[in-house]
Write a structure and sequence with these properties.
mainly alpha, 5 helices, globular, 130 residues
Length: 130
């Protein structure tokens, strides 16, 4: 695949990642009522941690927006995205396999983060722009 085609696909995937990061992960944890989070299978034991996680995920959403705008100049964000999505996938799968986590929401999140992880690795620009 040509470099320009890879960048086009990377930008498309980053656009989807930005939307998912804000609408499905960051903002719901940050802003949704606890009762709705409970309905989605998010335990409300200590809400400060859920809200802080939502803030951090939303901050990553901003970073992904910058990577979307210029993936070549923001390759460090893509590298952080590989770590982010790889770790989230591993931790989620670990809890699904060894701690009997049976949340369809978490399973879908694990699959999505795995797709983003693989996509970022396969489509990452080879060199950082000067």
């Amino acid at each position: 695949m040509s470099t320009s085609k890879k960048l086009l696909w990377l930008k498309r995937i980053l656009a989807v990642k930005v939307v998912f990061t804000f609408l499905f992960w960051g903002l719901p944890l940050l802003l949704f009522p606890i009762s709705l989070l409970q309905h989605l299978g998010v335990p409300p034991d200590d809400t400060i941690y859920i809200r802080l996680l939502g803030a951090v995920i939303s901050a990553f959403g901003v970073a992904y927006w910058y990577a979307y705008k210029d993936p070549v100049h923001n390759i460090a964000i893509l590298k952080a995205g590989v770590v982010d999505n790889g770790l989230v996938t591993l931790v989620t799968l670990f809890f699904i396999l060894f701690y009997d986590l049976r949340s369809i929401t978490m399973l879908i999140s694990a699959v999505l983060t795995l797709v983003f992880f693989i996509s970022f690795i396969l489509l990452m620009p080879k060199t950082e722009a000067a």
